[in-house]
TrEMBL record:
Protein name according to UniProt: UPAR/Ly6 domain-containing protein
Residues in UPAR/Ly6 domain copies: 21-98
Leader peptide range in chain numbering: 1-22
Organism whose genome encodes this protein: Suricata suricatta (Meerkat)
InterPro entries per the UniProt record, alphabetical: LY6_UPA_recep-like
Amino acid sequence: SEMGARLLLLLGLSLLLGVLQALPCFTCPRVNASGVCETWESVCQTQGSQQCFLRKVYDGRLLYGSQGCGDLCLSLSFFRQSVQVDFVCCNDAPFCNRF
Ligand SMILES: *[C@@H]1O[C@H](CO)[C@@H](O)[C@H](O)[C@H]1NC(C)=O
């Protein structure tokens, strides 16, 4: 599939760039309401205590989000006005921060 090929490409890239112990994560400053990265889709490698993170902003349905490698990553959810923000942190698998 196209998604599979894309993942393989990202995985290959990340292995080329990679430090062995580092975990590759998706990076995208802006994921749109369809869960598609709008700009600067890339791969980051966790360093030290970093984890992959996923941030979702939604009001019943997804409004937008972002992905990356983060320090001091805490998984949490909160409401701001009628909008819910979820932070998800993971380091259990490569690219675990997919939408
Ligand atoms: C998200 O981006 C994709 C690719 O650019 C586009 O096809 C899709 O319509 C966008 N979704 C929204 C809700 O804007």
